[in-house]
Amino acid sequence: MALAREAEPVGSLHEIREAGLARDDLLTIYRHLLVTRGVEERGHILYRQGKIPGSFYTGRGNEAAAVGVATAMGPHDVGAPLHRDMGVQIVRGVEPWRIFANYMGRAGGPAKGKDGNVHMADDHLGLIAMVSHLPAVMPVAVGCALAFRIREEARVAVTWFGDGASARGDTHEAMNFAGVRRLPVVFVCDNNHWAYSTPSHLEYACDRIADRAQAYGFEGVVVDGTDVLAVYREAGRAIEKARAGGGPTLLECETMRMEGHAAHDDASYVPREMLEAWAERDPIDRFRAWLREHAGLTEGEEDDLRSDVKRLLEDAVRRAEESPLPEPETALEGVYAEPGELDVLHFP
Ligand SMILES: Cc1ncc(C[n+]2csc(CCOP(=O)(O)OP(=O)(O)O)c2C)c(N)n1
Q1: Tell me: the pLDDT tens digits for 269-282?
Q2: Mean pLDDT, rounded, for 91-98
Q3: Per the domain annotation, does 338 fall within a domain?
Q4: Cα–Cα distance between 287 and 150 in angstroms, integer?
Q5: pTM of the full predicted structure?
Q6: What is the number of structural domains in the chain?
Q7: How far apart are CA 45 and CA 126, in angstroms?
């Protein structure tokens, strides 16, 4: 029996207005979804052209989960998104050209050419860089939440992890400590049903990963991660609850990894019927249909939006390719934070 609360879908425009979103905000969310997918599609082309070293990851299928949560964050909150959460980078304001530059190891990327793919962060936008040992970032986000508590700042930390990462010790330690101290942190699980080639039933034995929240002393919620508005509403509730002193929430976004683990993986171990069923619930198609039905999205508006995004991405690729590779003598710059950088609010 599941212990976590199962979130309802969002029905009407009225309901979403109550949750604080005007029509323009809805169009911005749609734009963010399109940019998120567009960045990853363009990136994949650059990868195939041999312009991106290393590997290439996408979050196809997870766009609504990432964009929905990030839209609910406040400007001074911090987030630690992972490799399926490009939408968080986009919503927080990382310009696409800098993402392409990061992919290509150029000096203009957030990692300034010192790291590649989605290993990037802009601390001025409240973003913490991911590392490959995925849930290792969760105690870091909990540490941010503890700092907010000690400094009496009304800020919240949001930290993402996958179904596979949920089995690691760092996840337990982060959630236990956050629960004990009732810290202002939201744990977001992107449950995309696969951890590389390992399916859910070989990863955890409870019904829902969010069921575990009860054992840590806080609320667990499961939301359809392909429904951007439901994700926004539930993330908003969790974030504002944390800000008000109500402690952590574990929000499990149910999604599907629609592509291989990374570009080198054809995901032949994933049943085709499973992919076909989830393709029917494509998050961008779903939101477009909702906007047409409930917010009067017209074809003209959609065309304008799409050509605007296309232009943005073309300019972004051009600008990233113009960005130089880093100079060797900059290798040690920015590796450690300077004391003066440690204690500043974002968006000062
Ligand atoms: C400690 C550790 N073990 C293995 C890996 C290799 N690895 C990277 S991502 C991944 C799967 C992670 O699965 P999940 O947490 O469900 O996230 P997903 O990739 O499905 O979004 C693996 C095995 C790693 N990066 N770190």
Answers
A1: 999 999 999 999 99
A2: 98
A3: no
A4: 40
A5: 0.96
A6: 1
A7: 29
